[in-house]
Amino acid sequence: xxxxxxxxxxxxxxxxxxxxxxxxxxxxxxxxxxxxxxxxxxxxxxxxxxxxxxxxxxxxxxxxxxxxxxxxxxxxxxxxxxxxxxxxxxxxxxxxxxxxxxxxxxxxxxxxxxxxxxxxxxxxxxxxxxxxxxxxxxxxxxxxxxx
Length: 147
Fold this sequence. Notes:
This protein is of the alpha/beta class. It has helices at residues 19-22, 27-41, 53-62, 82-91, 129-143, and strands at 2-7, 44-49, 69-73, 95-99, 121-124. Helices cover 37% and strands 18% of the residues. A 5-stranded parallel sheet has the order 2-1-3-4-5, with helices on both faces. It is globular, with a radius of gyration of 14 Å.
């Protein structure tokens, strides 16, 4: 099974960006932990991070026929990008939307996701651990669609 982990704008600054909100784990720390989980689950992972919307869309297009699923933290684009949702829908790859913070306890503009209607699931508020939850849940869903 092959799963892509896609990260959007500003996530390259994890660990130093507003640690009170986003924690002290870097994106590299999260990827290291996910590789361990991926080995446990027999999942081949690939990681991408882009600050630009178009770059993210290009990466999503590359998933078609290459990935069985995706874990997606599109950052602020989650709340604004119909284009990213359309790309995810077009490639027909099941995905889990993940957020480090509980977006529903934050500013009103963060409480709506453009991606959620197309997502298999949404995980938010568990910090870096949310990525692991998303990966485990997605792998289970892919392995047994009734999950």
